[in-house]
Structure formats: C-alpha cells, structure tokens
Amino acid sequence: MFCKVIKTAQKSLFFLILSSMKRKNTYLLLSSLLLIILTVTGYITFVNKSYKQEPDVYEDDTYTYIPKYIQLSEYDDDFREASEALGYDWTLVAAIAYTESRFDSTAISEAGACGVMQVMPNTMRGFDIPDSMHMDSKTNIMAATELLKALDKRFRYIRNKEERINFVLASYNAGYGHIQDAMQLAKKHGKNRFIWNNSVDSFLILKSKPEFYNDSVCRNGKFAGWKETLSFVKKVHSNWNRFSTLQESYTDSINTIVANDSTIRIR
C-alpha cells in the first residue's frame, strides 16, 4: 500500500511540474523534482549524511540530462565497475560497503580491517597491494572485488545464485574455512549444506562448541564470531533490498519524466 501511495504521489508531482515546465527553467525544475522524489522515497534520510546528495542535472543547448542512477556515495562508479566484474547488482556491492563502513574510507576495525570495504591487510597483500595503498578507496574496492570474485568462484557449485550470495557474504565476514566447516557439519547431520538460513548458519553457531569444532570434519577450529557473521549477512540483505528498491523507484520516476518531455535525456 505504501509503495502505491509513493507512486501516486510521484506521478502527481511529475505532471504538476511538467505541465508548467518551460525550457528556460528546466534545470531548476528537474533538480527540485528529483530532490522531491528522493525525499519521498526515503532515500535522502538513509544515505551517508556527509555526501552531497543533490541530483546531478545538467543541460546543453539541446537537452537536459538527468542521472541514470541514484547517488549513494562518492564511490558509486567504483561499485558499478566492481559489479560488472562480479556479475552482481551494483547496489549489492554498495550494500556491502555501507554495512561494513557506512561508506567511510578511513574506517579501521579492531581486527585491523580497513577502508570502505573493510578488507584485511593480509588479504590485500595477497593481491600484491602495498600497505601504502590499503586505505585508497578505489584500491580497497578493487581488492574487495577480487576477494568476492574468488569466493563466488569457490561456491560456484551452489547453483542458486541467491543462496550462493549468502555463502559469499558469510565467507567475506568469517572466512572461507569456517563456512566450509559449517557446511560439512550440516551435511554430516543430515541438513542441506547448500542452504544458508536455518541450515548452515545453525552449524556456524554450533562451531563455537568443542563437541562440534573438534569434529573430524572441521579443519579450522573454534569460531566464536558467529553473531557478527549472521548479523552481517542479514544487514547486507536489508541494505541491498532498500538500495535496490530505491533504484527501481528512481528509474520508474525518471522514465516518466522522459516520456513526458522530449528535451530530457537520461545519461
């Protein structure tokens, strides 16, 4: 019901503003309109407060151009480049970054994970990235992309992509070895080792108990960080759902604008 109200409000705004739009003030009207759209959808209240959130609208002698994508952070272009390499939705990559650091490129965790994607220094060294570049946002996102790509490849036998993403996310947080142990425990106890929720995640929890982490199928010992890992997977999905919904709503909005004015282009 709420989504229908938003869509109705958006359409009303489009036609009220577009009906009075004149070429000489298209830029200002579109900037205002897109700002209203993003506020109505809840986008403005969600993204990083320190980032400039005004829509990037510009015009030349022939057309007015409006952006194709919502603006989540200053790293959006890097997230989209990463998503192409991964075959993921770009808003998923953004959701991982937001969950990890709230788009803070200066963040360093107690464990030493750093940058916007919170990549461990040893991981970056494994990609031959010098220590001096670990906090560089583009390099940090590139390193995370390589890690996510490697994890996705390792779990390629999980054919359901949605499920595979769960295992990739869990491994990104906990490490591949602990997730493999949990999968082997699930298999041993008659559960589906290719399902995360209410299956493998349960055995990741049990890997904090000696009767489970000392099992012969476990090769990586005790895992006490299960609360963080389970929370991480859920938070990424929640942020991804919101980001992707915002992008879909925004896309519908700008398509309506373009359909009603031939002088406007999406870039």
Radius of gyration equals 22 Å
Strand order of the largest sheet: 1-2-3
Number of domain units? 3
Overall mean pLDDT stands at 85
Number of strands: 3
Shape: elongated
What features would you describe in this structure?
The protein has 267 residues and is mainly alpha-helical. It folds into three domains: 2-71 and 247-266, no CATH class; 73-154, Lysozyme, CATH 1.10.530.10; 159-224, no CATH class. Helix content is 58%, strand content 3%. It has helices spanning 2-19, 26-40, 76-86, 90-101, 121-126, 137-154, 161-174, 176-188, 196-206, 210-213, 226-259; strands at 58-59, 64-66, 264-266. A three-stranded mixed beta sheet has the order 1-2-3, covered by helices on one side. Strand 1 (58-59) and strand 2 form a beta hairpin. The model is unreliable at 1-12, 18-24, 42-46 and 48-52 (pLDDT under 50).
Which helices and strands occur, and which strands form pairs?
Elements: H1 2-19, H2 26-40, E1 58-59, E2 64-66, H3 76-86, H4 90-101, H5 121-126, H6 137-154, H7 161-174, H8 176-188, H9 196-206, H10 210-213, H11 226-259, E3 264-266
Parallel strand pairs: 2-3
Antiparallel strand pairs: 1-2
Helix pairs in contact: 1-2, 1-11, 3-4, 3-6, 4-11, 6-7, 7-8, 7-11, 8-9
How would you describe this structure in keywords?
single chain; 267 residues; mainly alpha; Lysozyme; three-stranded mixed beta sheet; 11 helices; 3 strands; 58% helix; elongated
